[in-house]
Amino acid sequence: MKVILTTLAMFFFSLTSEACTMCSSKQATEVRALVFGDDFYNNLLSSVLPFVVFTGIIVFIYKGGKTIKT
Amino acid sequence: MNSKPLIAAGTLMGIGMGGFVDGILFHQIFQLHNMLSAKLPPDTLVNAKTNMVWDGLFHALTWVATAISIGMLWNAVKRKDVPLSGNTFFGSLVLGWGIFNLVEGIIDHHILGIHHVVELQGLSLYDYLFLTSGVLFILIGWAFIRTGSKDGASTNVSQRYKQV
Q1: Are B149 and A70 an interchain contact pair (Cβ–Cβ within 8 Å)?
Q2: Which residue of B1, B7, B50, B131 to mutate against A (max A Cβ within 10 Å)?
Q3: Do you know which Pfam families this protein is assigned to (chain B) (predicted)?
Q4: pTM value?
Q5: What is the mean pLDDT of residues A24-38?
Q6: Hey, which of B8, B54, B127, B140 would disulfide with B35, CB 3.0 to 4.6 Å?
Q7: For residues B94 and B97, what is the distance between their CA atoms, to the nearest angstrom?
């Protein structure tokens, strides 16, 4: 059991040192710079905007519109 | 009787599941596009990983939509005035998927242009097919919802208890 856990931990940490978003590798630093760069708020708005519209549609179905009698 | 709580829950669940189809099938399995692939082509590891972060935000939002819909569905089935029609629920799911394709397609593909269905082709026939699928799903979903009143299984929670 201990061997399996140690192997998993080594596998996990060896991967995170190369590819994780939050670690301190060169690639991760570049990724963070791109994510949180000048376009961050534009990109955030672009990603969230459809869901704002979805929320409005669901509220309209739930509260607005005519009652559908069944 | 009031079907709106069931329709709202099913529609939101359809939006969430439609989002997962888009994200899992197009973003991950086929990798035809990513969230920002028109602005940031995923042709380097750093660009691909940056797109992956924004794909993750998109998936997180679809997860939240699905989770909220489960809560709404739970509340709907407990209400005595909500008929539990299979046709209404199925139609709502399809309606939600259609709304996802139409709204996401119009905003992200056409207005903002942050990605397209097949990124290598830019804005192409596939983007219009995506919108068309949205309209078709909305019509099919709405047709099922309209037949909900004729659904033999239409009943509410109190009637079900009486049957038992």
Answers
A1: yes
A2: B50
A3: DUF2243
A4: 0.86
A5: 92
A6: B54
A7: 5
